[in-house]
Amino acid sequence: MKAKTKKKLNYDLIKKVIKITAIICVSIIVIEVMYLIFAYWRNESKNTYYNVVNAIEKVDDGYVVVGNSDFKHSKGNSYTKGYTKGKLALYTEDHQLLWEKKYEKGYNTTFNDVAVVEDGYIAVGSGQMSEEQAQDEVNDAIIVKFDKEGNVVFENQFQILGDSKFTKVKVVESGIYVVGQSILEPMVLGLQTNGGGVLVKYDFEGKEIFHSNFGGGKSGLFNDFVISSDGIYVVGKDATNTGLIVKYTMDGDREWIRNYSYTDTLGFSSVIEYNGELYIVGSTKVKEDKDDYDIDGLLVKYDKTGRLLMEKKFTVNERVEDENKVIDTSVSMDRFNDLVIDQDQNLVIVGQTTVKDVKESTKNLNVFRYNGLFLKYSLDGELLEHKELGGSRDDYLSEIMLEDDHYLIVGTSNSKDQDLKQTGGNGKDYKPWIINADKEGNIIK
Fold first, then answer.
1. Quick one: which of 426, 368, 409, 415 has its CA closest to 95?
2. Which of 81, 113, 417, 443 ranks highest by number of CB atoms within 10 Å?
3. pLDDT by residue for the chain (445 residues), tens digit each?
4. 262 preceded by cis ω (within 30°)?
5. What is the CA radius of gyration of the chain?
6. What is this structure's pTM?
């Protein structure tokens, strides 16, 4: 009788041990699954979503824009995790997205500018077109024609020295003009004279007619240009980070060069012609440094012989550091990116101002906060309006367009404030910022 009782106790003990062991195993599996889900969520939450607009043009009943995106939240395109791709998109007049097309070729690609033609759009930019380029982080300049539905009609790459991009495009009766850059790859030494800023002309089939260059094979850059009755005026910078104006004939022959000392590493960024004079914006160094940590917004005026007529600098670093030491205004990075002339014959400029975020910066890493700038000047350089547009995080204003009774301004924002249209809501993701502003720079809701 005792033996039977002992056997039954052993059997019950074994059942209990097996049950406890099973519970422990299941718990471990559940914990592991939960950890994997959490790790995946944490990894995904760290991935910043990029959807950037670089340029905009008016079309019938709306706007065409170009830029780049990883399409993480796109309804019509697949997510390109780890890469950003050039995009072409069409918006309605009230800024509602109709469609967007991903440029499928290459690895990382972007479009910097777009021109509207009768049967479609010409987009220019840059792209890592091979695995080797992606590994080395160098680009080909690219020009792509799309039809009105966003289908590729032709596409071409441009390369001289190893790392190239196109920044602006304009279309005239005789063909397509683009400017940009072709420089040596990083860590490659050389004294080549055939690179730097580039001016290229294409026919309407995308075939190159000619190209010209200037500015140095390590960092020369052309950012913008105007086509005038007497030739082409190109602005950018040369290899020594001095602002640059180059006058070309329509056939690409260089006529003269003018320099401005000193600008930041981007140089002169935008130019317009009005009444036979050139108005140019960019930034100028307050003190010489390699990091552009102290720069002022810059507006200059030249005549068409290259003579400097006016120079205006702008900074917002008069702001006093707050008592909580959230920002440090001992240095300030202020930059003008684009300008137009409005109906009142005033210069309207957009750009950004930048200050150091003390709370997020560390000993080895400076973190900066960006705010959009809206300014208005008279033609003789009197400051008429100054507003900062933006929210709690980073806001960039890259381009401005004159509409009938207001300005259309585009840029990129990752602020989460609800008064800014098309915000990410998390202070992390970068999304297009397309706004209407009145003549005083106030956002029109």
1. 409
2. 113
3. 555 555 555 666 666 656 666 555 555 554 444 444 333 334 444 466 678 899 999 999 899 999 999 998 888 899 888 899 999 999 999 889 999 999 999 999 999 999 999 999 999 999 999 999 999 999 999 999 999 999 999 999 999 999 999 999 999 999 999 999 999 988 777 777 789 999 999 999 999 999 999 988 888 999 999 999 999 999 999 988 789 999 999 999 999 999 998 898 899 999 999 999 999 999 998 876 666 668 899 999 999 999 999 999 999 865 444 445 555 555 678 999 999 999 999 999 999 998 777 777 787 887 788 889 999 999 999 999 999 988 878 888 999 999 988 999 999 888 876 555 544 456 677 788 888 999 999 988 7
4. yes
5. 27
6. 0.85
Length of the chain: 445
